[in-house]
Task: structure prediction
Amino acid sequence: MRGIWLHDPRGVDWQKVMAELYAARMNAIFVKFSTGGAAYYRSEVLPGSFYAGRDEAALCLAAARRYGIQVHAWRVCFQMKDAPAESQQRAVREGRVQLDRSGRVLRPSYRAPVLCPSHDWNRSLEVRATVELATKYPFDGVHLDYLRWIDAEPCCCATCRKRFCRDTRSTVASWPRDVMKGGRLARTFVSWREQIMTRMVAEISPAVRRARPSTRISAAVWPELASVRRDRGQNWKAWVDAGYLDFICPMNYSTDPAMFAKRLSEERALVNGRVPIYVGIAAYKCTSGSQLQQLVALAHSSRAGGWVLFNYDERFRTQFLPYLRN
Result:
């Protein structure tokens, strides 16, 4: 795979994009078509639909088919980016968003609330939205991002407290102090967060495969598994081992060749050939086309199954595409 992520599909000249990718010998594009609160197509599941008479998904697919380029529908899970203000406010009122230790709504990404994975309604939304992506259009795959808790500190919402106590049969005397770092239940809480996120993937994957068996399911994941399990509850190795994913895209966003190669070596050992690894490369961090070429060459020499670049924008077009063509 020689792919790229595209962050915003609205108003894109799809014929131009696909022609440029084809000329650079690229064969896949990951397009963000939905978030935890909005869709960039006419959706029956998500409240904020940015369909304005131009079907971006259909146009994207038509152009991609002409050039033989795979299209993976990228979903930013739980993030309420671009959700209508009313939807965001309702989620806050209903206690469905992640909170910090002071009870304030966490807004670390996109300046929008983040839905809490412990809440049943939110989990149902993730399943329904992903199935809709897989079935509404003939995408080659669905690509899940932000399958992790949004902060290293615990979400301190009421649902997390209730579910944690029920699932682990723990008694919390002081909330949230008991589950914070150094608290008497901190380790139990870290393990519980990981189980919640793995359960989410275990619900999405079979639902998509039942609805459209040909859809490939993938995830953008963080490198350095031990730390991301501890800090964000993301155990992508468990997802791979259980067969929930068809491939992973570790976001190895370092431009240091030694660090990049080290992370990829670790990931290959953990996956052990169960699924392909298409390594994420931070083109936006590169200062030159030759630096990007070096990282791409490292991905090849390290025997990754391919790579995905972040992100298709004007700078990428003008500064980096010529190097990939050559």
Notes: The mean pLDDT is 95. The chain has one domain: 2-82+115-151+201-325.
